[in-house]
Write a structure and sequence with these properties.
alpha+beta, three-stranded antiparallel beta sheet, 434 Repressor (Amino-terminal Domain), Multidrug-efflux Transporter Regulator, Chain: A, Domain 2, 10 helices, single chain, Jelly Rolls, five-stranded antiparallel beta sheet, 10 strands
């Protein structure tokens, strides 16, 4: 929500600026209305943007008498920031919000249908961050699309060489999971380079149509199929499986794990 050089406000300072109590700020956070950063010691830190948002929330609550769900909808309908960096980072979130509005659904309805907290979904739509790979897949399935399309991968492009280190990258929705594109354009395969930080995981099993192939370049990956087949993959190992089988994964290495991952047809 804010960059590392901006001013940070403590809970009491932010609450005073918004004209509410600190406990009210914690309540609004639990309702997904605002998501402050955290310090290294776990304390809430509010940016100037957060404080401005808090003032709007207070106004909607006192002057308009809106409930939390209605306040979220009102905030989402406002004109987004002109910051190009923020716009680039939130493309996935805007796509999800557009799909939800097109379906005539509220945040609470989609959250209930998919099985996530409304606050988590609100954060994802605003920041393109904060969910597991499984949740992102479940949302794509809910809207009858794919994670690749949501991430802006599908675009018209002529065949071209993708140079080493020049890969385009998905929005980092899940901490520690970086997905880089190895092929551009409307293809019959999703070709990705995954870079997984220590402990990074899918955080649940998912499945979809198609088949997939993975090849580990470095590190170590644990892949589980149908909850009872465990594969421990190291450098040079490959695995091919049907995507309709439930699959989950985790980096079991104490450093980065890097792998090539291909889905066909592009259903993830």
């Amino acid at each position: 929500m804010s960059n590392g050089t901006s001013v940070r406000y403590k809970v009491a300072e932010a609450a005073r600026s918004a004209g509410v109590s600190a406990s009210t700020l914690r309540l609004w956070e639990s309702q997904g209305l605002v998501v402050p950063d955290r310090s290294a010691t776990g304390h809430r830190q509010y940016s100037a943007e957060d404080v401005a948002r808090l003032k709007k929330i207070a106004w909607y609550r006192t002057e308009r008498g809106l409930n939390p769900a209605a306040i979220r909808e009102a905030l989402e309908s406002e004109v987004p920031s002109d910051s190009s960096d923020a716009a680039d980072a939130s493309d996935l979130g805007r796509r999800l919000r557009s799909l939800r509005h097109a379906a005539g659904k509220t945040l609470d309805q989609v959250a209930g249908d998919v099985g996530v907290a409304a606050s988590t979904l609100s954060t994802l739509e605003r920041t393109s961050q904060g969910v597991s790979f499984k949740t992102l897949h479940d949302l794509a399935e809910y809207y009858s699309t794919t994670v690749s399309r949501l991430s802006g991968e599908e675009r018209d492009a002529v065949p071209e060489v993708v140079r080493a280190g020049a890969w385009r990258t998905w929005p980092e929705t899940t901490p520690g999971v970086t997905v880089q594109l190895l092929a551009e354009g409307r293809t019959m395969m999703d070709c990705h380079r995954f870079v997984l930080a220590p402990g990074a995981a899918s955080e649940g099993a998912y499945r979809h149509d198609g088949e997939e192939f993975m090849h580990v370049l470095s590190g170590r990956l644990e892949l589980v199929l149908d909850s009872d087949q465990f594969f421990d993959l190291g450098p040079g190992d490959s695995l091919y499986f049907e995507s309709r089988r439930y699959h989950s994964w985790r980096n079991r290495h104490d450093g980065e794990t890097i792998l090539i991952w291909i889905n066909t047809p592009p259903t993830f």
